[in-house]
Structures are given as C-alpha cells and as structure tokens.
What we know:
Blueprint: E1 2-5, H1 12-20, E2 24-28, H2 29-32, E3 53-57, E4 78-83, H3 84-89, H4 91-100, E5 103-107, H5 117-126, E6 131-134
Parallel strand pairs: 1-6, 2-3, 2-6, 3-4, 4-5
Amino acid sequence: MNLIFLSPGSSRAETRELRKKCDCLLIDHKKIIGSKDSFQVEEEGFDIRKQPLRLVVVSLSQIKHDWRVLNDEYRRNTMIIAADEEVRENPEIVRFLEGKGVALLMCRRNKKGLLDGEGLFKSLTSLKFNTILIEDHIDLLPDLTPLV
Length: 148
C-alpha cells in the first residue's frame, strides 16, 4: 500500500492532482466541519468511477447529519471508519448511515485506546485499495501522521 501525505502548504491545484491519482482520501471530522470541499475530483468530464473513496475517521458521536459528505451526490462514495464498540453502542447512527448509503468500516482499538492503524490498513488492502492520500493529521491515528 502506498500512503501519500498532503503537506500543510499544498495548494488547491496540487490537492486536486493528488486526488486524481488515489484510490482513497483519508480525512477526519476536523477537515469536514464547516468545509465546502467535496473531497472529490471536481473536474468536468472526470470519470465518476475513478473518484477516490472518502475515508472519514471519526468517533460516531461526532457525526453531524448535515455534513456535505453524507448528503452530496458522492455520499455512496464515503466510508466511515469507527471503533468496533462505538458501532455496537450506536445503532441509531448506524441506521442513519445505512439509510444514506454510506459504508461503515469497524476498526479495533490499540492499547492506547486509539484506532489500530495496522489492522485498518490490512482491511483496506484486502478491499484492493492501493494508494491512500492522507489529507491532514488524523487524531484517532496519530502514529500514522508524519511529523512536519
């Protein structure tokens, strides 16, 4: 699996070009809140089948029903990544996501109480995702984010 880290100073044009080359974009709730970004390749004529999957790492309690990624035309191209126990303990949120057509990937926690990055990437590799663009620091996966 190839991980690409978006640098904090990347321009919108650089971001768009990197998104074209990736299978997935890994983002967390901080990046979504108040954003008008679709986290997709917004280019006329771009093949919708080549749009990267939006992987959103979030605690289910932080999900807001009005997030663009849960309501736009690409919502079926979104996967929420949450801890196993949160999924079991929040059936109403799970039903909401299912009703929107948003996929849900359950992930175990590590000894520090954060998401198990190694297990997550094994799951994503098994789903045939090879290139992931990491767009920001991911709070629940701190070992993944390089120091800048």
